[in-house]
């Protein structure tokens, strides 16, 4: 049994007491949109992990999917005509460490750079190893980020096969701002580095992958008629942007979005999945 995650003590959770467990009822608009989606015979339900299946927490290794959400994702994945996938910015190894079995068989990691699908769908994709230049570049950018993390209290690094992430969630606002600014200044001059801002993170990657590309690939590969994508972060916007009017994009939380529907928090995911399951029954 995996330990329960620590609850975050950050701006996103300093909302009123009880906010974390508050479940908002599905709006009539969202319910209608879900009905339309549920009518398609072959669908993909793709969910982001951090901030969507799992509430955000201070340390990435403490994140876990809400148990009810994980069970419902599994149940949904066993229904005829439904594929389920987790589409994460995490690398696949890190995802497997925080997601209790059974994980959906379709997993996208590192924002799309890593793709794991059942064998019958794996034609046409293999995770490419980094070139020598990319490996050297990753070493250079990681060295620069390490120097910045060492200068600021509670600023940490997360290492991925093709990227390094600067985490400032646990730092003071001043340290967080300074570390972010230094990282941006230091890395933007490095050719071949892709910088992605997320929630209290700056990710520097030597690859150009993004979730939009991965979702479009999954749509083709699985030959589905409609895609439901749910995500909370800035990097999920690439996913929302490739959706068509046949699809459904749901943004978790506040902030500008290309998604057409919204829910308040990861705690609304179980009800949403339950509704979808009953609509397909
Ligand atoms: O695409 P996702 O599955 O949402 O992954 C995006 C990033 O999530 C993780 O960072 C975020 O969640 C952490 C744990 O809750 C939190 O501490 C951090 O502040 C958030 O930005 C993960 O660590 C990153 O590698 C992912 O890219």
From TrEMBL:
The organism of origin for this protein: Glutamicibacter soli
Function per UniProt: Removes the phosphate from trehalose 6-phosphate to produce free trehalose.
Coiled coil: none
E.C. code: 3.1.3.12
Reactions catalysed, as given in the entry: alpha,alpha-trehalose 6-phosphate + H2O = alpha,alpha-trehalose + phosphate
Pathway(s) this gene product operates in, as recorded in its UniProt entry: Glycan biosynthesis; trehalose biosynthesis
Family: Belongs to the trehalose phosphatase family.
Source taxonomy: Bacteria, Bacillati, Actinomycetota, Actinomycetes, Micrococcales
EC primary class: hydrolase
The protein's required cofactors: Mg(2+)
Alphabetical keyword list: Hydrolase, Magnesium, Metal-binding
Record flagged with keyword Magnesium: yes
One Gene Ontology MF term: trehalose-phosphatase activity
Region (Disordered): 1-20
Descriptive protein name: Trehalose 6-phosphate phosphatase
A Gene Ontology biological process term: trehalose biosynthetic process
SUPFAM superfamilies cross-referenced by the UniProt entry: HAD-like
UniProt cross-references to Pfam families, sorted A to Z: Trehalose_PPase
Matching NCBIfam families: HAD-SF-IIB, T6PP
